[in-house]
Amino acid sequence: xxxxxxxxxxxxxxxxxxxxxxxxPIQSGWRLAMRExxxxxxxxxxxxxxxxxxxxxxxxxxxxxxxTVNTNLQATNLPPGAGHLLGTTSEGFDELALLMRGGQASxxxxxxxxxxxxxxxxxxxxxxxxxxxxxxxxxxRIVDVFLxxxxxxxxxxxxxxxxxxVLSLGLIIGGYxxxxxxxxxxxxxxxxxxxxFVSAARIAGVRPWRLIGRHLIPNAVGxxxxxxxxxxxxxxxxxxxxxxLGFGLQYPTQDWGDMLxxxxxxxxxxYWWLVYPVGACIVLxxxxxxxxxxxxxxxxxxxxxxx
Amino acid sequence: xxxxxxxxxxxxxxxxxxxxALAACGSSPSGGNxxxxxxxxxxxxVPAAAPFGHxxxxxxxxxxxxxxxxxxxxxxGANGSVYTAYSFQAEMWRYLYMFPDGAQIQENKPMSLASxxxxxxxxKTVTVTMKNWxxxxxxxxxxxxxxxxxxxxxxxxxxxxADYSQYVPGVGIPDQVVSMSTPNSRTLVMNLNKAVNxxxxxxxxxxxxxxxxxxxxxxxxxxxxxxxxxxxxxxxKIYNFLAAQSKSTGTYxxxxxxxxxxxxxxxxxxxxxxxxxxxxPNTSYSGPHAPTMSTLQAVPFTSDTAEFNAIKSGSIxxxxxxxxxxxxxxxxxxxxxxFGYPGFGFSYVTYNFKDTTGDFNNxxxxxxxxxxxxxxxxxxxxxxxxxxxxxxxxFGPVPQVPPSPYTPANAKTNPYPFSVSTAASIxxxxxxxxxxxxxxxxxxPGTASNECGSGIPAGTKLAFNLIWNTSPAIIGQxxxxxxxxxxxxxxxxxxxSDNFNHMIATYYDVAQPKNDNLWAMEDFGGFSxxxxxxxxGIFNSTGTYDIGGYANPEADKLIxxxxxxxxxxxxxxxxxxxxxxxxxxxxxxxxxxEVWKKTISGPPASFESLxxxxxxxEFWYFTK
Lengths: 307, 624
Hints:
Distance between the termini of chain B: 31 Å
Number of strands of chain A: 0
Order of helices and strands of chain A: HHHHHHHHHHHHH
Distance between the termini of chain A: 25 Å
CATH superfamily of chain A: MetI-like
CATH superfamily of the domain at 345-590 in chain B: Dipeptide-binding Protein, Domain 3
Helix content of chain A: 55-70%
Oligomer: heterodimer
Structural class of chain B: alpha+beta
CATH class of the domain at 345-590 in chain B: Alpha Beta
Low-confidence stretches of chain A: 1-15
């Protein structure tokens, strides 16, 4: 309950601050966003986790050499020990080394999908927003149609038909993840196109593609970056789901979903090392991406900044 | 492993040509002593029978997806499964001849309804003499009742060939039956259109006959008169009526038709949603059974995990041990007996002899290549690492275990033992430049013995794809190791995962020739096979289930001999040839692992038969 006796606004007496707030040196939007981001503890934690996993997956294999390609039928399902820090799988692969290799594949697919999706979606949204009218309506209805199709269904069919690889999975998932960015960027462009600098550029004879590339997309980049982080998280989960269903990447390439799928059958057998570590990896990376995304959204949106 | 068994069952239904087990398998525990099983392949052991204590209610686990959907023993393919046939229908209506005997792939004579058939007229006429068993309504089981079944199968296939799951056009029952007569109530004389192999016809065709109570069922409506079923028009009316009744799953327990049985049990309740059912003993049952039979209660489960949890809590008397939970077997051994043994059949990687991609068709035609590939399979390693020891080696279409009189000598020891170096040597000796870790290339094209072979040009690479079924997990585990070993000799295999239903609908040369070039190899599971294990239909060039288009005139000749010659060793010769030729990569057989409470006992064979999908609770009793 609000205490009506409490002062709502600071009185102007006392400290002689200028009207309108404290004056300070002018900072760029990027710098303000970065300052906002770094002051967010959860964002820093998320960044640290993500950096850890990038190092773990891509640099870790340089220092830790476990077998992930050649099966070893004499060393299957071994518990964690000196030779295998996180035990072995049902094929005799080293679980820790496989976490690294599986993480590489999962992250590669996720980042590829997110980047591909954001590039495609940004262009689509920017064109729709800038051109407007019938073109905008048609382009957005196409987006609506694609959004109504369950992505897992589409990806499963394509994966079964053509066989998944890091590149193909990244492009397939990215080919779906452009829809939301397209909507968001279009929304940004709809507001930007009425601004004076856009009008000035048009009057100066700037061509539409240059207008999009030099003026519109750079001003919508905040929305795009935020969306990339969420798309990375979603893509990791989707790749894991595909792998869990048995239609993810194929041996000798493996991803975290494959590992989880292989381990889950032994859930009741006490082979915890086949399930919990990879499950934790998926949860932590997805959580990190979401924390970063939340913080970036707060940073880029002036209305959500704390100061 | 249940999922694998279901896969096998589907494959069996898929392959209802002479090679399937569904027609011929039957349950038949006989004596009180344990059958001597080959140690290879067995998991655990069956204890000797304990003294009879008392009868009661025995609860058995019904695996996920095993809900019976058909009660009438003339079963359409779409409704057939090992569970419907052997755990449900067979409790109420018994086969003319019962196979196997426990886990032994042989007839169980005490359980058969007739004496062994007698052949005449150059193996074109067979005479069957019925025993003196009775229906539950007190009427004798006559030769006409067996004839009734055959007439109804004729009517069924007229409606649709798919309406009798064991139907093969032109082969066996009913198409080869020209006429039948019943000179007296116990004798059935069957005349065939041509001479057949008596053993094949006995084990694969006659054994599939289920005598039906003509005195109660030969009618076209619930209150209609009993009709002359030997009149084809009447038989069609009767079939249509009985099939319609069978579609009404909600009335299974209340329909008086289904209460006339010759098996040990009568259905007393059936939930057509969950599949749960109970059966009460048929007090008029003529076959061997416990001093007092117990009530049977089938408890359905929606997942293997739920079933295993029920076992751990001791809430069911008999169930199965899901394969992935085998490492936990110690946790239940104080309460349950555990026994595993492979079902009679084979698992295999199918080669596509019609895939022209990269000249694979010409490569796989080479016997040396198939033999080299067989050397890359570590069956013993698979059994130890992936099957947890619960499985048996299998080197040909007729497995080593369960023991069969038709297993050829060359299938009893591995003709192509695991050896990467041997595989590499074979390839080198036939003109391939072996690149371990890379991809082999044909460097000596030609047809000489030291050259790659006909149709394989210089520069051809050993690189192709393999499509594998994601369930059960052991398929993927075996394939992963195979691909790894192949890579060591420069055979580069690209994997693609799929599921059973899509695979058999897509990668199947006979049914889908347009997809011939989409696949080089596939592993969908395997086949359950009949006690007389001819590969008619699977490895003959005209076979409906010759999935990879294997065509070999010598194999065709031997397979034909198995069904038409009078030579009792014909099928063994066929199996020996196919084992040597390796028309596919035969894989080890995994055990079906069954468990039952230590407070339940009975003849050991009655528990061993569970591994062959046979449920025989009429022999079981509580010890205290």
